[in-house]
């Protein structure tokens, strides 16, 4: 008699958490009860991971493990995450052993990630063929097909398939040298109940807008598209109701049409620092209090003052955040910040008062100076004093100042005359914090 049969399954699963995969296989042979528990264990059976790096080809142990997980598991739905690298040397293992097992068990897959990397063009065709081989009876019935999340990289979608009709999340990535395109008609035909659509490096062709696209868009909660051929698509009224929209590489005119959706209500605006790895600089606009978000990812440099609708939007901005190096660009693009209450400046360069454009925020209450990760210089008190005098002369009231991760040197007594409520200091060295406390006590 198996004495562990009286234990709750959760306790045995907790024990399995401390075992390696090969040990779980051995445990499954102890008894029928343990076999059932092992096959239902979420850590080893509900997530199949097969990752390959450029300099580290898959070994056959990893392939055999993935096959065992796909064929032996009784869990459903399962998550499959495959990343393959096919260098020109051709040393990578062939995917044929895994693909037939994946096709056979596709009806139990709830989330599928297929990323094909490298320079071998023939590799992606094998995985495209995989999607074509799934039996129609599996893909056409929503009761049998459990696939709800699909992420593809350099893998083309098959034509005329009903495999994705129940899909909720679709992420599609293509390299810059591959000409992958998606039409609005195809989206409407393939994805019936989609909630998240993320297209990166894939052009969405919307020269013709199909009937029914407005009601289809109403299901979306997240949309990320490449803006080059989506200008007509982005002007649809239903786009403005999507909670989170990210538009990659918009021109100034495309950005202006996107911003035109924000005709009323207060908004938060944040310009991120330029990401040299991704070669992108996001401008995020959040509508309050409903929360719709628009992220414009400028992969080619766009001078923000050229986005004319930002000027009209500036009257509704309640919170603004941007790198200090973009001071003139932001203040030029947002000239009338009459509702601005909170300003966050991320110091990515030395603080100075050489402004071409002055901030016009008469009702500003909070100023946060936040040090960027790659900026190490300290801030001198007299320079901070001159900055506070000059940066927003239209503001007649005093402000709350927060210095976050900034080292302050040469403290200036007159800073307390500039600030009505003193300054809040976070994460500073003890000497600086003590100097604030001492000066505050002297002022009292």
Question: What does this entry show, briefly?
Answer:
This protein is α/β, with parallel strands linked by helices. It has a domain of 45 residues: Monooxygenase, CATH 1.20.1280.
Please characterize this protein's 3D structure.
The protein has 444 residues and is α/β, with parallel strands linked by helices. The chain has a domain at 1-45: Monooxygenase (Up-down Bundle). The protein is built from 17 helices and 19 strands. The chain has helices at 9-16, 21-27, 32-39, 42-45, 60-72, 98-104, 121-133, 136-140, 184-190, 213-217, 231-234, 252-259, 309-313, 327-333, 381-390, 415-418, 430-443, and strands spanning 47-51, 78-86, 109-118, 149-153, 169-173, 181-183, 196-205, 222-226, 244-248, 267-271, 281-287, 293-298, 317-323, 342-347, 366-371, 379-380, 400-404, 408-409, 423-426. Helix 6 packs parallel to helix 7. InterPro entries: F-box-like_dom_sf, F-box_dom. This is F-box domain-containing protein. Pfam families: F-box-like (PF12937). Residues 1-48 form the F-box domain.
């Amino acid at each position: 008699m198996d004495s562990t049969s009286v234990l709750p399954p959760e306790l045995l699963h907790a024990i399995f958490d401390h075992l390696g995969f090969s040990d779980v296989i051995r445990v499954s042979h102890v008894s029928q009860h343990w076999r059932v528990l092992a096959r239902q264990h979420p850590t080893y059976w509900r997530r199949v991971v097969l990752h390959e790096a450029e300099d580290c080809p898959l070994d056959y142990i990893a392939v055999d493990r993935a096959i065992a997980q796909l064929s032996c598991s009784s869990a459903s739905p399962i998550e499959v995450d495959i990343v393959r690298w096919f260098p020109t040397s051709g040393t990578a293992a062939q995917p044929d052993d895994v693909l037939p097992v994946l096709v056979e068990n596709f009806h139990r897959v709830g989330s599928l990630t297929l990323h094909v990397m490298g320079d071998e063009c023939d590799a992606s065709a094998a995985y495209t063929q995989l999607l074509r081989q799934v039996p129609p009876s599996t893909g056409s019935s929503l009761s049998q097909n459990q696939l709800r999340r699909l992420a593809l990289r350099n893998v083309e979608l098959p034509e005329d398939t009903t495999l994705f009709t129940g899909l909720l999340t679709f992420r599609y990535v293509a390299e810059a040298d591959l000409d992958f395109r998606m039409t609005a008609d195809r989206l409407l035909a393939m994805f019936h109940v989609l909630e998240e659509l993320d297209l990166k490096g894939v052009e969405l062709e919307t020269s013709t807008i199909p009937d029914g696209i407005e009601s289809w868009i109403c299901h979306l909660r997240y949309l990320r598209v490449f803006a080059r051929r989506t200008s007509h698509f982005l002007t649809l009224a239903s786009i403005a109701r999507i909670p989170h929209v990210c538009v990659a590489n918009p021109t100034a005119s495309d950005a202006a049409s996107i911003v035109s959706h924000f005709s009323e209500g207060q908004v938060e605006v944040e310009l991120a620092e330029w990401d040299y790895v991704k070669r992108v600089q996001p401008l995020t606009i959040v509508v309050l209090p409903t929360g719709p978000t628009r992220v414009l990812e400028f992969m080619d440099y766009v001078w923000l003052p050229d986005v004319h609708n930002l000027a009209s939007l500036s009257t509704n901005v309640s919170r603004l955040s941007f790198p200090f190096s973009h001071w003139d660009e932001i203040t030029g693009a947002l000239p009338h910040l009459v509702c601005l209450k909170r300003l966050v400046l991320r110091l990515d360069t030395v603080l100075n008062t050489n402004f071409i454009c002055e901030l016009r925020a008469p009702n500003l209450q909070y100023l946060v100076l936040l040090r960027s990760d790659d900026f190490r210089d300290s801030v001198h008190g007299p320079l901070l004093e001159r900055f506070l005098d000059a940066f927003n002369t239209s503001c007649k009231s005093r402000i709350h100042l927060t210095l976050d991760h900034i080292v302050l040197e040469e403290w200036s007594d007159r800073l307390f005359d500039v600030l009505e409520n003193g300054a809040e200091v976070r994460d500073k060295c003890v000497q600086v914090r003590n100097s604030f406390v001492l000066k505050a006590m002297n002022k009292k």
